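seq:
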Amino acid sequence: MVSIHAINLEPGEEYIVDNGHLVAWADYMQYNIEKASNNGWLRSIASGECLVCRFRGPGVVLIQTRNPKGFDGWLCKMGFTKASHN
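struct:
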């Protein structure tokens, strides 16, 4: 199942999260979007993450335990199917 976790950051504290796990954050927080790997774009893409967000506190970042693709795969394994639209 999917869980939502609150990451409470103190002033100046940093936290990096994969964009696929990001749910929400306080609008006053400082953040940067970065490539996942420092070794170039190809390594970032090969890692499966590609882009991450680096947040700096103070503030709260909400993350989910499954990324959307993983959650979709889990639902299919549980027997749920996608609705067809005619």
